[in-house]
Amino acid sequence: MALHLSWVFIFGILGNVVSFMVSLAPLPTFYLIYKKKTSEGFQSIPYVVSLFSAMLWIYYALLKRDAMFLITINTFCVFIQTFYIVTYFYYGPKKEKIETVKLMLLFNVFGFGVIFLSTFFLHPSLRLLVLGYICMAFALAVFAAPLAIVRKVIKTKSVEYMPFTLSVFLTLGAVMWFFYGLLLKDINIAVPNILGFVFGILQMILYAVYRNHSKKTVEESDPKLQLSDNPIVVVVDVAKHAVEMQGDKGNNGRDDAFNKV
Fold it and tell me: Are 228 and 46 spatial neighbours (Cβ–Cβ below 8 Å)?
């Protein structure tokens, strides 16, 4: 029993360390925003969604009661994502500020509020089960985002837009949290990280295959599918790209600003 708890502690600590470093990855972007004194051309949605995800996992961990390390890292994520959003909002033009407020209301107020109220009055065991499935489904959607990166790398034969260091840390994080969830016998934590590990390994294999190929910029191959260092934003980019392929193609100025991030 003591040995089991010690391994839970070790993987919890390691998961926190790796996730802490991944959470700091957007800092260069915000330093650039600070230098430019504007967040125009960047997106707030990855930080809004990351905040929403952290809120969900804190709620789940509080109900579970034996997942202390989920609380510690996601509490930090709440603070750092709030800092990113406030900075983005402060330097954003009026249009981007309005868009950020809408996203905050959609995800962090309405979305989280609906989940909280719809589960709060359930029996504790059922509430934990339902909330766990919600967290797992959301995590799976985020971990599936690298599919767009894989598609882009294969299409352009370039790893220019797939940061290798970030891929390594995301893979390491997936390993740590998988074993943490496994040792806690919690499939809601373990299962999404299997997918995260698989896609992380796939990205590193692609990096090894294409790293020596000549660079081909995204603009040359498909200007509407630029990729971000934040995996969450890829989901948004792909959805936006699919809609635009069906509809109006005359908003290139807006598209360029949307895709700069």
Answer: yes
Instruction: For residue 30, give the nearest of 82, 105, 98, 74 by alpha carbon.
Output: 82
The C-alpha atoms of residue 58 and residue 73 are separated, in whole angstroms, by 9
Question: Which own/partner pairs from 96-100 qualify as long-range (CB within 8 Å, at least 24 positions apart)?
Answer: 96/39, 96/40, 96/44, 99/44, 100/44, 100/48
**CA max distance for the chain:** 64
* Phi, psi for residue 251 in degrees, rounded to 5: -110, 50
- Cα angle 219-99-135, degrees, rounded to a multiple of 5: 90
pTM: predicted TM-score of the whole model, two decimal places: 0.77
What is the per-residue pLDDT across 114-137, written as a single tens digit (0 to 9) for each? 999 999 889 988 999 999 999 999
Q: How many CB atoms lie within 10 A of CB 32?
A: 12
Tell me if 42 sits within 8 A of 261, measured CB to CB: yes
Give the helix ranges, DSSP H, for 37-93: 45-64, 68-91
Continuous H helices in 92-145: 94-104, 112-120, 124-143
Of the candidates 86, 84, 71, the residue with the CA atom closest to the CA atom of residue 26: 84
In this predicted structure, the answer to whether residue 48 has a pLDDT above a threshold of 70 is yes
Task: Assign 3-state DSSP to the chain and report helix, strand, coil percentages, each to 5.
Answer: 80, 0, 20
- The conformation of residue 45, written as its DSSP 8-state character, comes to H
Count CA atoms closer than 13 A to 176's CA, side-chain side.
21
CA torsion sign for 129, 113, 234, 75 is negative
